[in-house]
Design goal:
heterodimer, A: mainly alpha, two-stranded antiparallel sheet, 2 strands, 60% helix, 6% strand, B: mainly alpha, two-stranded antiparallel ribbon, 4 helices, 11% strand
Chain lengths: 63, 162
Amino acid sequence: MKTKIKVFRAIHDMTQAELAEKLGVTRQTINAIEAGKYAPSVELALKMSKLFDVTVNEIFQLD
Amino acid sequence: MKRIYLFPNRLKIPALVIFVISLILIILQLAGIEKEINTTVFAFISDGFALISKKDNTYFGFVEENIYNEILDCAFFISGIILAFSKEKIEDEMITFIRLKSLLYTTYFIFFLLILSEIFIYGLSFLNVIMGFLYTFVILTNIFYYTKLYIYKKQFSYENED
C-alpha cells in the first residue's frame, strides 16, 4: 500500500508528532504507516481524510 | 466501535513489582526454600491427588492447608495478566496489534509444547509440566509483548525526512 501522508502533512505544515496528536495515536504509528509497515484501520483512515479534507483514496493507494 | 477492556496504565508498575517478587519466590520454592502458611480454607475439592486414601477427600468443605503456594500463584498470575494487558500511556491500534501478535505467538508456542508433552511425557510429571506451561504462558506473553513494543518504538522513533 502506498500513502501520500507526507505530502498532505507538508501541505498542512504538520509534523508527525502534531498529526499523531490530532489523530490520537503515537508518532511511531504515523511513522510506521508512512513507511508502509502498517496499514491503518478504517477509522484512522477516515479521521485522517477528514483532517486533511481529502478522500481516503487520495491518501492511500493499493500497490 | 466496541473497545476491549484493558487495565489502567497506573497499575503497570505495581503489577511489575509484584510479578517479579512472586516469580523470584516461586523459583525459590522450586529450589526448596519456602514458608508455611497453614490455615483453614473452604475447598470445592481437596483430594491430595492419589497419595491419600479416599477417606481423606473433602468436597465443598473446610480443610487445613498450607496456602503459601496458592498466595504466590495468585499474585503471579494476577500481576502477570495486569502487566500484559494494561494500557500504554498512549493506547492506539498499533499497540493493540502488537499485543495481539504477542498473545498469538505465545499461544502457538505453548500449545506446540503441550502437544509434544502429550506424546513424550506420562504420569504425574505430565501434571507438573502442565502447571509449568501456565507460568510460561504468562511470562512469555509479557516477554513477547514488551520486546515487540521496544523494537517498534526504536524502529519508528525517527521522523521520515526524505
